[in-house]
Specification:
The chain is mostly helical. The protein has 17 helices and no strands.
Length: about 300
């Protein structure tokens, strides 16, 4: 003790505290400093390299792309041109498929959010026979792989005339998106204080008015998170679109794949088409980023 005290007595208060810190504490302090932030920024920049490369490739002519890599733009900025985007707008297959993607994604997202919110509220706050068993059945559908239902539902749609139509693709995405939507929103709505709902009922609010005026505003973060998830899943889907669409109803993912198969050197259409297909969901995500983070963190802090 004498030696330790003498040792610490000869040092300042800061040095004494550091001497008492364990190795783990010093490592944790170093990890929370600026070095880790710099490392994360570098990792994020490397993560963005493919996106930046695709953007610069879409702004180069086919001749330049065949002659050198996209990084040549930094030494020769004169290569940048919007010729590829003009070519893209002149390609009716790509433009129609992009419009088909919007026609599929927007209704599939809106229907899943609306129906999932109504069902989630019913499972959370309405009493009806077999409520818990019905909810268990809905949740059990989460483990069913989408590949299992492709052929049976394709045969069913063929018999009723929905195969190859946009409406059929929307129905498939809605059917497979609802179990997760009901599970997510039911658990979120169940955390709403019962006293708040009872107070609204005492003021004369019916179930629909209670749902629209109280539950929906409070469930905004969870609903926004669900909408972003569903939008990204449907927009980037290729498997379902390959099975259920035809040439006149195919989305952008299938159209780009068709361009690769039929025109292997059609890079002046593929590069801008792929970038537009990627940047739209990114724009949607960043537009609702705050609501998405709030929905993900909901319930983590009381």
């Amino acid at each position: 003790m004498t030696t330790d005290a003498g040792t610490l007595r000869g040092t300042g208060p800061v040095e004494a505290v550091k001497a008492r810190e364990s190795l783990g504490g010093r490592l944790a302090a170093a990890a929370s400093g600026g070095l880790v932030r710099v490392f994360l920024i570098v990792v994020g920049l490397f993560w963005l390299v493919p996106t930046i490369g695709l953007l610069l490739s879409s702004l180069r002519s086919p001749e330049d792309m065949n002659a050198s890599g996209w990084w040549k733009v930094f030494s020769q900025p004169s290569q940048l041109t919007f010729h590829s985007y003009r070519t893209l707008l002149e390609n009716s297959d790509i433009t129609s498929s992009l419009w088909n993607t919007v026609l599929i994604t927007v209704p599939a997202t809106v229907l899943v959010v609306v129906i999932g919110a109504l069902a989630g509220y019913a499972f959370a706050w309405m009493e009806f026979p077999g409520r818990d068993w019905w909810f268990l059945g809905v949740v059990s559908l989460l483990v069913v792989p989408v590949q299992v239902a492709l052929i049976p539902i394709a045969e069913l749609f063929g018999k009723i005339g929905l195969f190859g139509t946009i409406f059929g693709v929307i129905l498939f995405h809605v059917g497979y998106g609802l179990p997760f939507a009901v599970f997510l929103l039911r658990n979120f709505f169940a955390e709403i204080p019962r006293e708040l709902l009872e107070a609204a009922r005492l003021d004369g609010a019916g179930e629909l008015r209670l749902f629209a005026r109280v539950v929906m505003p409070l469930g905004g973060p969870a609903i926004a998170s669900l909408g972003i998830f569903q939008f990204l899943w449907v927009w980037n889907d290729m498997l379902v679109a390959l099975v259920f669409t035809k040439s006149s109803t195919q989305p952008i993912t299938v159209a780009l794949q068709t361009q690769v198969r039929q025109f292997g050197n059609n890079i002046d259409v593929l590069a801008p088409g792929a970038f537009i297909s990627m940047v739209i969901p990114l724009a949607v995500f960043f537009a609702f980023q705050r609501q998405f983070v709030s929905g993900v963190m909901a319930g983590a802090v009381k």
